[in-house]
Design a protein that fits this description.
The complex is a heterodimer. Chain A has three domains: about 120 residues, Response regulator (Rossmann fold, 3-Layer(aba) Sandwich); about 110 residues, Rossmann fold (3-Layer(aba) Sandwich); about 200 residues, no CATH class. Chain A is of the alpha/beta class. In chain A, about 45% of the residues lie in helices and about 15% in strands. In chain A, the strands form three sheets. In chain A, strands 2-1-3-4-5 form a five-stranded parallel beta sheet, with helices on both faces. In chain A, strands 7-6-8-9-10 form a five-stranded parallel beta sheet, with helices on both faces. In chain A, strands 11, 12, 13, 14 and 15 form a five-stranded antiparallel beta sheet that branches. In chain A, about 40% of the residues are buried. The longest helix of chain A is centred in the middle third of the chain and has 53 residues. By secondary structure, chain B is of the alpha/beta class. Chain B folds into two domains: about 120 residues, Response regulator (Rossmann fold); about 60 residues, Orthogonal Bundle (Arc Repressor Mutant, subunit A). The termini of chain B are far apart. Classes of the chains: A alpha/beta, B alpha/beta. Chains A and B meet through helix 5, helix 8, helix 12 and helix 16 of A and helix 2, helix 3 and helix 4 of B.
């Protein structure tokens, strides 16, 4: 992880002119280590204490690197090191075979776009363990037998191949689709049982490469294979560099070759799924610890100032209520933010400061009688005309209650019109007609401390506090990134705290 | 151009002036289609399903929520959405890593020129991650200024007249050349300066009016 200083890049060149050109282009972005021989580069790589971000092969004859010992060492010993081949012309056969042996990760024909090369290297340097964002819902397949989906606009040939493959083995099912839309439909029907997609490039409508681009994002664990009879190098290069395809399979297909290919692809799929699941578990486990520490720090920082206003475990109750609002699961970005930035300390400090500012505004009128329903009604009616941010002066509990509620409504895209006040059986009940939204909170995985987050969290705490001061009972029902609040006053028992 | 290739753009920027300015520039490119815009994060999430954008351009500091939190939420439902985040300040390496791990495709800060934002928008349109040389301070003399000094005398003359919005026919008359020749000067000027459109040239010439471009 090169979070300080420029990422280090090994450059294996054949011509000094190429070396100079590369170094000049990227001197501002990387620390370039140029080597004229594999042996010298290997020696450097072996003794490097921290693996470089990338290795660039800039050869006179790309074919000479088909069995490069340097690339093999990089592949076997430093799996996160990005291996890039830059060539005057790249033959499709070379690309296909280097993809098979996994000796290269990216491949560009010269003149290559320096923006893209820089971006690939910086991305690899910044996120050596990047995992795709996890989806909210996962389809669970009970009787699991993985499937390979073949997408081609020649259904007769595809179906014949599918039957052949099904006869040859019992490990996976073979499904067919006639175009990209059909493929996406099959994938949504089959859920996570589709492990491998092999698609033809040239099809009416959406092309194979575009389908694979889409799948890379929506279903990152599906192994992607592009196939074509046309041998278009530019498409193959784009599919490798942008689509991160597993293999490029030339047509015509042989059932035997495909069987071997699909078995490898299935193994790769299982490895991807295992890596994804274990990184999710890891992230959740680590975040659970962080959450506990955060919980303890928040209680410690705020219990005393709240205790001065009202007796009782307001802060603990508030945090319990928050914990019922479900947010997105933790991932690497949240862990990094908590560990490598000052997020955790700033969160507690920032929240405590905002809460103290609010507490300083809170005034306690002496000896008030019960809260009359009309008082609440007129206070709520004032919300319609009030700018909550503008009213900065001292506030009795009812005013602060309304102001906090207005903040929370606004954060959910709602306003006073979404409130209903119900008078029945001598009690007063206030609720919202739509759920309030909360995408993140004090106990959720966070990437950053933002002003709206602090304001809304403070508002929800003040809502808890002021409803107690008004002798009301606040209940919070948590949902998926949302919650419902209900406030109930029993008319007879209402007293100022 | 097939359906997956066109940029279906959704823009979430709080301030109208900034949003309009960005859109005026972005929509000059005819393969971009604006499918929705919002001032707030909540509104964005409410409308994303119907708008089905391919790219979400979203400010980090929104009035109602953190832009990145909104983007993460959008991505959990629409994983193939490409998110371009606009940050108020330049981004550190540690922050950039956090953004990328959160599934953001690119970050452009408000300190960067509009051309950088548009370039980034096109790089990420198919779901690619794009990291520019975001930490590098701008070179001492902007590239365009250096390029301007490399223009021939005639090219500079044409550039100055064009920047004053003198029509091609009049430029041709003033210089005693054909319209076709003026057009080929114009093409050369644009290529050399790295511009695509007249407004860029006008802005450049006005900005450097008292400097080397005068």
């Amino acid at each position: 992880m090169a979070s300080t200083g420029a990422p280090e890049v090994i450059l294996r060149y054949d011509h000094e002119q190429d070396r100079d050109q590369f170094t000049e282009l990227f001197a501002r972005d990387f620390t370039v280590r140029p080597f004229a021989t594999d042996a010298a580069a290997l020696a450097f790589l072996t003794q490097a204490s921290i693996a470089p971000a990338a290795i660039i092969i800039l050869p006179r004859h790309p074919n000479e690197h088909v069995d490069s010992a340097l690339l093999a060492e990089a592949r076997d010993r430093h799996p996160r090191l990005l291996k890039i081949l830059l060539g005057e012309t790249i033959a499709l056969n070379l690309l296909v075979s280097m993809l098979d042996t996994q000796l290269i990760d990216r491949c560009f024909e010269q003149p290559a776009n320096p923006d893209l090369i820089r971006s690939h290297i910086l991305t690899a340097a910044l996120t050596p363990t990047a995992t795709p964002p996890s989806r909210l819902s996962q389809t669970v397949v009970g009787d699991y037998k993985p499937a390979v989906l073949i997408v081609d606009d020649e259904p007769t040939a595809t179906r014949y191949l599918a039957r052949q493959l099904e006869r040859l083995q019992g490990e996976f099912r073979v499904l067919c689709a006639v175009n990209a839309q059909d493929a996406l439909l099959r994938i949504s029907e089959e859920g996570d049982s589709i492990a491998v997609v092999m698609t033809d490039q040239r099809m009416p409508g959406v092309q194979g490469k575009e389908l694979l681009d889409e799948l890379r994002q929506s279903h990152p664990a599906i192994v992607r294979i592009l196939t074509s009879a046309w041998g278009e190098v530019d498409v193959a290069l784009d599919a490798v560099n942008e689509g991160r395809i597993f293999r490029y399979q030339k047509k015509p297909w042989q059932a035997g070759d495909l069987l071997t290919l699909f078995r490898k692809a299935l193994n790769h799929h299982h490895a991807l799924v295992a890596a994804r699941d274990s990184s999710r578990c890891e992230a959740e486990r680590h975040f659970a610890e962080l959450r506990q520490q955060r919980h303890a720090r928040l209680i410690e920082a705020l219990s005393a100032p709240l205790e001065q206003v009202i007796h009782g475990p307001v802060m603990a109750d508030f945090l319990d209520a928050l914990a019922r609002i479900r947010t997105l699961p933790a991932n690497a970005s949240h862990l990094r933010a908590s560990r490598e930035t000052h997020l955790e300390q700033e969160l507690v400090r920032g929240f405590a400061n905002t809460v103290r500012q609010q507490l300083a505004l809170l005034t306690m009128p002496p000896n008030r009688g019960p809260l009359h329903p009309s008082e609440l009604e007129s206070a709520l009616a004032e919300m319609a005309t009030d700018d909550p941010v503008a009213s900065e002066g001292d506030q009795p509990p009812l005013a602060m209650f309304c102001r906090s509620l207005a903040t929370l409504l606004a954060a959910s895209g709602l306003d006073h019109r979404h409130l209903v006040l119900d008078r029945a059986d001598g009690s007063l009940r206030l609720e919202t007609t739509a759920p309030l939204k909360m995408y993140s909170h004090l106990l959720a995985p966070l990437t950053r401390l933002s002003r709206p987050l602090l304001e809304q969290q403070t508002a929800l705490l003040m809502l808890h506090l002021t409803s107690r001061l008004l002798a009301g009972e606040l209940t919070l029902e948590g949902g998926e990134q949302s919650y419902w609040v209900t406030l109930q006053f029993s008319a007879t028992a209402s007293r100022w705290g | 151009m097939s359906e997956l290739r066109r940029v279906r753009l959704y823009v979430t920027v709080g301030q109208r002036l900034l949003r309009d300015s960005l859109l005026f520039q972005i929509l000059l490119h005819d393969d971009v289609e604006l499918v929705g815009e919002s001032e707030t994060g909540v509104d964005t999430l409410n409308r994303l399903n119907l708008a089905r954008p391919g790219v979400l351009l979203i400010e980090e500091n929104l009035r109602d929520n953190d832009g990145l939190t909104i983007a993460e939420s959008a991505l959990s439902v629409h994983p193939s959405l490409s998110v371009l985040l606009i940050s108020d300040t330049p981004v550190s390496s540690a922050r950039m890593a956090i953004y990328l791990e959160a599934g953001i495709k690119a970050v452009v800060s408000k300190d960067q020129p509009i051309q950088e934002l548009i370039k980034t928008l096109f790089y990420i349109r198919n779901g690619q991650v794009y990291v520019g040389n975001w930490q590098q301070p701008p070179a001492s003399a902007p590239a365009a200024l250096e390029a301007y000094q490399g223009l021939s005398g005639r090219e500079r003359e044409v550039a100055q007249l064009m920047a004053r919005r003198v029509p091609v026919r009049e430029i041709a008359g003033q210089l005693g050349v054909s319209c076709k020749t003026v057009h080929s000067y114009k093409d050369r000027i644009f290529v050399k300066l790295g511009f695509e459109r007249l407004p860029e040239l006008i802005l450049f010439m006005q900005r450097h009016h008292h400097g080397a471009a005068a």
